[in-house]
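Hi R.,

Here's the input for the NAP complex you asked about:
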Amino acid sequence: MLTDTHIVFIGGGHMAGSLVGGLLEKGLTSAHIHVADPDASQLQHLRQRFSVSTYTDNLHALRDVQVVIFAVKPQVFRVAARPLGAELAKSQPLVISIAAGIREKDIRHWLGYDAAIVRAMPNTPALIGAGATALYANATVSATQRSLAEAIFEAVGLALWVDDEKQINTVTAVSGSGPAYFYLIMEAMESAACELGLPADIAYKLVQQTAYGAARMALESRDDAATLRRQVTSPGGTTESALKILEAGKLREVFLNALTAARNRAAELSNQFGKQES
Ligand SMILES: NC(=O)c1ccc[n+]([C@@H]2O[C@H](COP(=O)([O-])OP(=O)(O)OC[C@H]3O[C@@H](n4cnc5c(N)ncnc54)[C@H](OP(=O)(O)O)[C@@H]3O)[C@@H](O)[C@H]2O)c1
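And here is the predicted structure with NAP in place:
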């Protein structure tokens, strides 16, 4: 089904580029992918890399498409969406937004009709095909369109549905911002290793490979993270000594506070973008 679909990207930046790459790998032909962006040099780069058709005028990209993906920054979403509403209302394609914080009701309002809309929250590992994306569909989205949206984001990693749009803010706090939390832990482990006398390049490589190995074990094992942690924690051993310090430092509480702050900030940004003059 995906391979017969014409997909238009409004905005041809980093995220659009990674999705296009993933879709081509999944068997979509470049003739089925169209990218619109005001930046001609950006479009030239995409043409050279993927042989997709490109447009500097968003409206020209919209003919005979089944899916339109808005891959623009949240602050330009309204300006990009409003001129396209009348044309999209005629063909009624699935509209997908990957813009952080832009609510479905605001997109519907800017397009000016009861559009079938999926909001997607991917994360940066999508750029290397290892993303985690949560999807939310409004009531107008058909079962076929849901399958299409899922297939598009599975082209760049894992895709999961949430039922309540508000959960997208929590997703933003967990997997959207999540890569940064792991990088911070890696940084902290690297600098501790150096403090304890390891050369920086050795510390860097050991931490990277340990993060990769732990993530792979968690993904491939049937055991949950708590079980895997207990399996490497012998009573009276070295790991236990370290974990006692992390628990005493209230790491779990720190994470709860951190994710709550990110979730609340996502909600604030949604309100701010939604209040933009319509
Ligand atoms: N990168 C991530 O990891 C990530 C994760 C989750 C969600 N997102 C969301 O994905 C969206 C895109 O992010 P990105 O990193 O791909 O941004 P990006 O690289 O800046 O790409 C956005 C592109 O849209 C173009 N654009 C601006 N106004 C336009 C218009 N009116 N019509 C068509 N195109 C227009 C921009 O051109 P100019 O540069 O000339 O303005 C730029 O090439 C954002 O809303 C972001 O919240 C990104």
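One thing worth noting: The CA atoms of residues 192 and 198 lie 9 Å apart.

Cheers,
M.
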